[in-house]
Amino acid sequence: xxxxxxxxxxxxxxxxxxxxxxxxxxxxxxxxxxxxxxxxxxxxxxxxxxxxxxxxxxxxxxxxxxxxxxxxxxxxxxxxxxxxxxxxxxxxxxxxxxxxxxxxxxxxxxxxxxxxxxxxxxxxxxxxxxxxxxxxxxxxxxxxxxxxxxxxxxxxxxxxxxxxxxxxxxxxxxxxxxxxxxxxxxxxxxxxxxxxxxxxxxxxxxxxxxxxxxxxxxxxxxxxxxxxxxxxxxxxxxxxxxxxxxxxxxxxxxxxxxxxxxxxxxxxxxxxxxxxx
Length: 277
Description:
By secondary structure, the protein is α/β, with parallel strands linked by helices. The chain has a single domain (about 5-275), classed as Ribokinase (UDP-N-acetylmuramoyl-L-alanine:D-glutamate ligase), CATH 3.40.1190. Helix content is about 35%, strand content about 20%. It has helices at about 20-30, 60-70, 85-95, 120-130, 145-150, 155-170, 215-225, 230-250; strands spanning about 5, 10-15, 35-40, 45-50, 50-55, 80, 105, 140, 175, 185-190, 200-205, 275. The strands form four sheets. Strands 3-2-6-7-8 form a five-stranded parallel β-sheet, with helices on both faces. Strand 2, helix 1 (about 20-30) and strand 3 form a beta-alpha-beta unit. Helix 3 packs parallel to helix 4 and helix 7 packs across helix 8. The longest helix is centred in the C-terminal third of the chain and has 18 residues, at about 230-250. The protein is globular and about 55 Å long. About 45% of the residues are buried. This is hydroxymethylpyrimidine kinase. Its EC number is 2.7.1.49. Keywords: ATP-binding, Kinase, Nucleotide-binding, Transferase. Pathway: Cofactor biosynthesis; thiamine diphosphate biosynthesis.
């Protein structure tokens, strides 16, 4: 009798009790794209659609134990890393992952929430740059996060290009710099590939407050598509289309009193079954 496996994606990220961001957005995205979601909780933010109220830490040993439990049982085909807000957590995740065979890693350098709330400690930035960024297949900063990484203002498309080149010099394999904060009719995201080529992706800007968790959704979508065996460029391309449609499909729905979530299940895919050798 033939046996099958699901393409598995591991999300290493923070919590969101309101269901729009963090591991909640990741689980929804991974599932909607036909993959199997596993998770490791890195922090317990207390938040809703209106903002972050507090962040409670998860013990480092607990994070390490979670990673080992998943990796030793359900080896992922791709990993998405989100909220890692302390240098000790960066070190813990990096050293634990190095025990296992290399898997494509999508790093969303979560530093600033949609509400504008700063989510990362200052000394964590250097830890990200020195340890996690070099092992990531692709990082997905928004313009505010790119400004922090490049240590410059990032308000225009030209500044995005300059920042991308500077971040690439940090030892980054590839970057998808999101342009969602642009106040123009069309928004442009830039993908700096492993060969230092810059690709532009342009979409119409959707006028809605329902973008809570869009960054989490994009990074986990890229990871899901990589897990399916798609190329990095195709994964980046298709993931952006998925996020655009998820925002568009949920733009007129009110969930909460602040920035609402995306509609992750606007066109859910059946679980993918890969035949085992």
